[in-house]
Design brief:
With 391 residues, the chain is an alpha/beta fold. It is built from 14 helices and 14 strands. It has 3 domains: 84 residues; 238 residues, Phosphoenolpyruvate-binding domains (TIM Barrel); 49 residues, no CATH class. Helix 1 runs parallel beside helix 2, helix 2 packs antiparallel against helix 4 and helix 13 crosses helix 14. The relative contact order is 0.08.
């Protein structure tokens, strides 16, 4: 049997394509085609032989077409090819990058989350440089059906190897049983958040939570959930979904699939989904979690993006999806507090601190009483101003 894994072609970079045939005799015949063969050929072949030894493969024909793949990519591609041929539960794991062993807080800001196709390593490598709040290693819509198995292994290796520079490390899993299989692969490797696509009921959240609890008995770090609402039924059940688990930290809306489900065209104005977006915001606020808006699909229209973010902010959303790094600074700037919002927040915080120093149980600003939720929002505004470098 012959198996392949990886990508090749004119525009492929930082990846490799492998073709493996396990034979009964003849030893190992390894053919490496790489532009960096003169510099790194011996190192690559050593890694290849380490993997073959790990899986106890003594006889094979292996072709590797390399376009500058790093070790974690080469290892993922060869492991995927092997597992397409033989039944094994063994995982070939390279050393864990110690910079990646961090957890995140439930209430951290999630202004920007950058989507990265789960089977395209070149887009993953420098994602942290752009300083998104989160990176999404996507196993769902961005991965072709026949590539999902190998993408799962690549994403696992990326979680272990790539330094995302403090960004929250998110994985968007597939739907149903395939998504539960995704969890088996990524949960043990310090994933911070799971995005659950096309969520329509609380039961989907509970299935994910039960699977994670089954897997992570030996791991002591929280894994948060972000359900994505992409259908009319999901909108109707938004509050039920938002309160399905203590690990639901935010809830997002996916407007491309939602507008298709509604039978309407998505427009820049967004009037066709105004009610649905407000339903998501209200459900999130009632549940005490973050509402996150959809992506803006035109990566060239920066003014349209800015206007959309301002509208999103005015509706109560607290972040957006990102499909290109150039969108990040526009989104961050638009979500940042205005001078007027910041000045008001400062006055409220000062009034709160003064009341606390005097031992007063009531906070007042001028002749107006300030309720605790308003104080909390003011503190969050100050924190957001610091994050967005307004102060």
């Amino acid at each position: 049997m012959i198996a392949t894994a990886g990508n090749r072609g004119e525009n492929v970079r930082s990846d490799c394509f492998v073709k493996l045939e396990i034979t009964n005799s003849g030893g190992r015949n390894i053919h490496l085609n790489s532009k960096v063969k003169n510099l790194y050929g011996k190192k690559i072949l050593q890694l290849v032989n380490d993997i073959l030894n790990f899986y106890e493969i003594k006889n094979c024909n292996l072709e590797i077409d390399d376009t500058g793949a790093l070790d974690f990519v080469i290892a993922a591609r060869i492991e995927a090819a092997i597992k397409k041929i033989i039944q094994t539960t063994k995982d070939f794991l390279l050393p864990f990058n110690e910079n990646n062993k961090y957890s995140t807080e439930k209430e951290r800001f999630r202004l920007t989350r950058l989507y990265l196709p789960g089977n395209t390593p070149k887009l993953m490598l420098n994602a942290g440089i752009h300083k998104p709040d989160g990176v999404i290693l996507d196993l769902e819509d961005s991965v072709a059906p026949d590539k999902k198995f190998e993408a799962r292994i690549l994403v696992r290796n990326a979680l272990r190897s790539i330094d995302f520079m403090g960004a929250e490390r998110m994985v968007r899993i597939n739907q149903g049983e395939q998504g539960l299989q995704d969890l088996e692969t990524v949960v043990p490797h310090y994933v911070n958040m799971i995005l659950i696509p096309k969520t329509e009921s609380a039961e989907q959240i509970k299935q994910v939570e039960a699977k994670i609890n089954q897997i992570k008995r030996d791991y002591d770090y929280p894994i948060w959930f972000m359900p994505i609402i992409e259908s009319a039924k999901g909108v109707e059940n938004a509050y039920e979904i938002a309160t399905a688990s203590e690990y639901v930290a935010s809830i997002a809306i996916g407007l491309e699939d939602l507008t298709a489900d509604l039978g309407v065209q998505r427009t820049l104005e967004g009037t066709e989904t105004f009610w649905q977006r407000m339903r998501i915001v209200n459900a999130a606020k009632a549940a005490g979690i973050q509402p996150i808006d959809s992506v803006f699909s035109d990566v060239q229209d920066m003014e349209g993006l800015r206007e959309t973010v301002l509208k999103s902010k005015s509706l109560g959303f607290e972040g957006m999806g990102v499909i290109h790094p150039r969108q990040i600074p526009v989104i961050v700037k638009a979500f940042a507090p205005t001078d007027e919002e910041l000045e008001k927040a400062r006055k409220i915080v000062n009034a709160f601190n003064e009341a606390k120093e005097k031992g007063l149980g009531v906070v007042a600003l001028g002749s107006k009483m300030i309720d605790p939720p308003v104080v909390k929002r003011a503190f969050n505004t100050i924190k957001l101003a610091e994050l967005t470098k307004k102060i």
